[in-house]
Amino acid sequence: MHYLNEDHVLLFLIQVLVLLVFAKILGGLCQRRGIPALAGEILAGILLGPTVFGRILPSFQRAIFPPDVTQVTMLETVSWFGVLFLLLATGFEVDISTVWKQGKSALLIGIVGVLVPLGIGALVFPFVSAIFWGSQATRLSFTLFLATAASITAISVVARVIYDLDITKSDVGLVSLSSCAVNDLFGWLVFTIVLALAASAEQQAEQPFNPGQLLLVLSEIVLFGAVCLTVGSKVFGALTTRLKGSALPQPATTLTLIACLGLSCGAITHGIGIHSVLGFFIAGIMAGNTKAISEQTREMISQTIHAIFVPVFFATIGIKVDFLQGIDVWLVLLFTAVAMGGKFIGAWIGARMARFSRPDAISIGIIFVPGGAMEIIVGILALEMRLIPESVFVAIVFAALFSSIAVGPLLAWSIRRREEVDVGGLLVRDAICLDLAGKSRWEVIPELCGKVAQVVSALDAQTLAQAVREREEIMGTGIEKGVAVPHARLKQLGAPLVAFGRSKTGIDWDARDGLATHFVFLILTPQEEEGLQVQILASIARVMTQTDIPGKIMDAESREDVFGTLNQALRIEQPPSRRDPHRRVTNV
């Protein structure tokens, strides 16, 4: 029997320490510059691995990261925990209930957003030379794998980018997240089929191909997923609610329960014959779809996963692969073009089919571009199954990094190119409430809607409140630093308007940072003006989270003071021809 000795443990601790420190430092530096942290974390591994450190000081690099089987296995184990829990956290972002409430728009964009890049990849990748095939690959399995890798969108990158640009709570942000959830579900279903085909091909040398066995595996995984996402999700929600009412410490108990769920689902999918990462992804969706877990707890769980395991996982990628030796520039350019172009075109077509405006369709198309961690994980699984060599894996990593870095500036450009909205001119003076009586968001919404109905006689308070409440039930509108932005689009509204309410005691709006909400902006826009919400929400979020305006509003003693402060902070200089249409309602 083989036992670990103290030297193994000591070197393992040094390895994890070095990887974690470098990954967190470089990841943090990237985040400060608007670049996803995974870029810095992978760069840490490239610097410490054979690509850089191994060329400058090869003996020292091998001393810290020796090719010893025991050391490699220990580090690989931690790395795989990173992969598995990253998929768990990714599944946490997939809200099935939101997808159903969004109706056909999310399904249409998500499915078309997968099928188009799949189709483009299926047309392009068969012509890639056989020298880029893995030892266990056929033309079919290689093509299907690359096409699938090029079609999956990184929902975690998407969530971060639209959050940074303050459009998470807009209809475009909501439908984009819902569509990306569909994309991930459908994409991983396709990849499950590819894995099953590859596994069957690998066994074909030992025994004849059995299509019945393949269908059985696929049927089992579909049945397992369906049970988990319906009955399983409800059972898990009930169990979580019961544990929250017990004396057990929170959120530690919830985190333990979610980890156990992931381990169980991973073991089951592995037993079925599909990789365990799919089980962790399904477990994340199950856990994420219960309302018993607050936004604050979700954020704490996500931060726990991303604090240790994920940085080490991305850093170990650079330790295992020599990026200079394995790079093929033309292959990198080809895969990047197919992946980014295919996903953009697919999501754009889906958005136009769902009747989104051209500006919104462009933004949604850009949002679908990043491959991020999802492409990399798919690449690792293919590398493990010997479907691809290191050169193809390097191309996938570069494409994932470039698309994740590019999506932020591209999305910001798509928002800036829209016609600017004078948000200050939309604020209704007589719909400002200095002391909200409501103690919950469900009481505050009808209170503010009543204020609006008093000012604009054509609007009915009950109808307004119902529309805003329905939108709030799909996804909460609490943002950080005590601000909430409930909103709705209405057919009977001729021009956009904004009402405002202040609560000095604070309201629980289930915001991600866990803070009570003191400032509520009710945003109402016409049904046909889809693009307005993005600009209005982004402008309000910027002013209320990045300036000293909240302090001034909290100290204001009159409605005039609040109106003057907000009007000035949110106003932009525009020609009268662009300003007048939005002022008709505010002067009522």
Could you tell me the CATH topology label of the largest domain.
Answer: Na+/H+ antiporter like fold
Give me the number of helical elements.
26
Number of domains: 2
- Write down the CATH class of the largest domain: Mainly Alpha
Instruction: Give the beta-strand count.
Output: 6
Per CATH, the architecture of the largest domain is Up-down Bundle
Structural class: alpha/beta
Per-chain topology:
Elements: H1 6-32, H2 37-48, H3 53-56, H4 58-64, H5 69-92, H6 96-102, H7 104-124, H8 139-149, H9 155-164, H10 171-203, H11 211-244, H12 252-272, H13 276-288, H14 295-307, H15 309-320, H16 323-326, H17 329-353, H18 358-367, H19 372-384, H20 390-416, E1 427-433, H21 441-455, H22 461-474, E2 478-479, E3 483-484, E4 487-490, E5 497-507, E6 517-526, H23 532-546, H24 549-555, H25 559-570, H26 576-586
Helix pairs in contact: 1-2, 1-5, 1-15, 2-15, 5-13, 5-14, 5-15, 6-10, 7-8, 7-10, 7-17, 8-10, 9-10, 9-20, 10-11, 11-12, 11-13, 12-13, 17-18, 17-20, 18-20, 19-20, 21-22
Core attributes:
6-stranded mixed sheet; Na+/H+ antiporter like fold; 6 strands; 68% helix; 2 domains; alpha/beta; 588 residues; Mannitol-specific EII, Chain A; disordered C terminus; globular
Précis, in short:
The protein has 588 residues and is α/β, with parallel strands linked by helices. Helix content is 68%, strand content 6%.
